[in-house]
Design brief:
three-stranded mixed sheet; alpha/beta
Length: 305
Amino acid sequence: MLAHYTYDGVHNDWWGMEAMEQKTRWKRFADIPCVFSSGWYDPFVAEVSEQFQALSKQSKAPQRLILGPWNHTAMRGGGSFVVEVDFGKSAAWGYGVYNAERLRWFDRWLKDIDTGVGRDPKVRYFVMGGGSGRRNAAGRLEHGGHWASAAAWPPPAKATAWYLRTGGGLSTEAPKADEAPVSWTHDPQNPVPTIGGAVAGFLEWVKLPDGMDKSYVSPRARMRNVVPDGPMHQRERPGDVGCKPPYPLLAERHDVLVFQSAPLQKASICSWPTRSSGCGSARGSTARSCSSRENPSRSRSSCRR
């Protein structure tokens, strides 16, 4: 798989095989009751929500969607935090809540017991934000959040265009045609590291102590994350891939552009779908790119000032 990531560069028959790609085969799925669950820091959240949308349209059986402030495993972990950010008590599920939810679902559809799942909202999702913004006793950011529900996905929202402006501004006012472009210099010997995010599986083998028989240690127990999966303060730090002294904030790097709006005048929820578009060119190569991309699931934090 790493070889295909490194050398393919395009979607091809290997990535399109049945084990790797489901979206082209949704019509083959059985018409049965399903619950889809994921988290905002799970790399598969877009695919999960898109699958829910597709099967909701084509199936007669009920479909449900649950999206929490979790990474790939935090839904079952039971904590209210992911890496460096705490979302409050309501974010903590763990096996107690997770198994209770599963039993309600299976008792209804396998044993025909009225457990009330038929009256549950079709979509439950966690809106992140609204916390104190301070660090708690454990050193984690108190970001907060709350659960919301909807009859479909995505929930109703008003589209608002925001424009990247020269000088680092972010505004709802469109730039004039003659506004100067922004630029940066990329050094392939010192690329910008990934500090957390919606990732999973960035692991390395841990060397076993002398005298320990590796046959008694499972392969998974010997792995550690080299890119933590979840929200993190965007500062380089020792031990993470690509980070180097003096470990600056990413925003302080010369090859990172930051665009920021003025403080919001009222509480607002940044919702979905999102679409980005832009044009760029590079000197020192023949690269030029103009792109437009829509992501129906990944704009997910509430913006509060």
